[in-house]
């Protein structure tokens, strides 16, 4: 789903000609990323589309994209375009993901951090969300319900992406850009562990139904602006996931 946000991101403004044009492009794209309108993995519009929207030449645009890539905000991939990168440096991601590979129980430490961050974020969102924010959250929740009916499991790839997008929408609804970026950075760190987690959890009896019930409680609490209930619902949800993972990892360790 990277293409969706790139296509739908806030419209860029034509560049004034009395300033260094490439730097103005850099500043606009940085602002859109820092405002949370583009997420890690999202794709920018094509060079042609960007040049037309900004009313600049393609060589000038490429100069700006080169700067954005050099400062670590995007990655320009041949035949794929410009992809927004995580704000968490690889120097932080890789050691943590290596620790989880060596000791899978370390994923529980990350879940503990995520629990503290996500639970407070849900409470803030319940208090601060605009009607547009709530509609966005509601839209992801409805889409997830439809996908789960089709695939029968929340841990399949497409439903799990919608699950993540719901939490990102909740983070954006806090209207605290620092919080939103920090929360999304924790999710980026978990990306290395999530495939492991998803594989392990997939076959737990009735896991999809239980996770969906918890997910609905979180969404309903935010939509009804009940901050205390939202905080508790996220805490219960992540406590449940953490406990299931702990049991699975320990059972695997105890195998002869």
List the defining traits of the structure above.
mainly alpha, 12 helices, Four Helix Bundle (Hemerythrin (Met), subunit A), two-stranded antiparallel sheet, 2 domains, Arc Repressor Mutant, subunit A, disordered N terminus, globular, 256 residues
Low-confidence stretches: 1-5
CATH architecture of the largest domain: Up-down Bundle
- The CATH superfamily of the largest domain bears the name GntR ligand-binding domain-like
Task: Please report the distance between the alpha carbons of the first and last residues.
Answer: 42 Å
> Strand-residue fraction?
under 5%
Mean residue pLDDT: 85
Q: Work out the count of structural domains.
A: 2
State the strand order across the main sheet: 1-2
Summarize this, please?
The protein is built from twelve helices and two strands, in the order H-H-H-H-E-E-H-H-H-H-H-H-H-H.
Q: Can you describe what's shown?
A:
This protein is mainly alpha-helical and 256 residues long. The chain has 2 domains: 2-84, Winged helix-like DNA-binding domain superfamily/Winged helix DNA-binding domain (Arc Repressor Mutant, subunit A, Orthogonal Bundle), CATH 1.10.10.10; 90-253, Up-down Bundle (Four Helix Bundle (Hemerythrin (Met), subunit A)), CATH 1.20.120. Helices cover 71% and strands 3% of the residues. It contains 12 helices and 2 strands; from the N terminus they run ααααββαααααααα. It has helices spanning 2-8, 21-34, 47-54, 58-70, 90-102, 106-128, 131-151, 157-172, 177-191, 194-202, 207-223, 227-253; strands spanning 74-77, 81-84. A two-stranded antiparallel sheet has the order 1-2. The chain is globular, with a radius of gyration of 20 Å. The protein starts with a helix and ends with a helix. The model is unreliable at 1-5 (pLDDT under 50).
């Amino acid at each position: 789903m990277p293409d969706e946000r790139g296509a739908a991101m806030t419209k860029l403004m034509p560049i004034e000609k009395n300033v260094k044009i490439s730097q103005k492009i850099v500043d606009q794209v940085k602002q859109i990323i820092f405002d949370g309108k583009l997420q890690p993995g999202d794709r920018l519009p094509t060079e042609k589309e960007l040049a037309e929207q900004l009313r600049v030449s393609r060589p000038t645009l490429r100069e700006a994209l080169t700067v954005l890539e050099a400062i670590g905000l995007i990655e320009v991939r041949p035949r794929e375009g410009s992809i927004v990168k995580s704000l968490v440096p690889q120097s932080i991601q890789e050691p943590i993901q290596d620790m989880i590979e060596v000791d899978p129980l370390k994923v529980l430490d990350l879940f503990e951090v995520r629990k503290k961050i996500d639970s407070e974020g849900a409470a803030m969102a319940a208090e601060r969300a605009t009607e547009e924010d709530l509609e966005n959250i509601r839209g992801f929740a409805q889409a997830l319900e439809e996908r789960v009916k089709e695939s029968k499991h929340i841990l399949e790839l497409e439903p799990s992406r919608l699950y993540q997008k719901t939490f990102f929408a909740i983070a954006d609804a806090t209207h605290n850009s620092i919080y939103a970026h920090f929360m999304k950075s924790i999710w980026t760190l978990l990306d290395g562990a999530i495939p492991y987690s998803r594989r392990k959890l997939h076959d737990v009896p009735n896991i999809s139904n239980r996770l969906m019930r918890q997910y609905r409680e979180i969404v309903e609490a935010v939509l009804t602006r009940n901050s205390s209930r939202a905080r508790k619902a996220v805490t219960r949800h992540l406590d449940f996931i953490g406990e299931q993972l702990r049991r699975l990892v320990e059972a695997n360790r105890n195998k002869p």
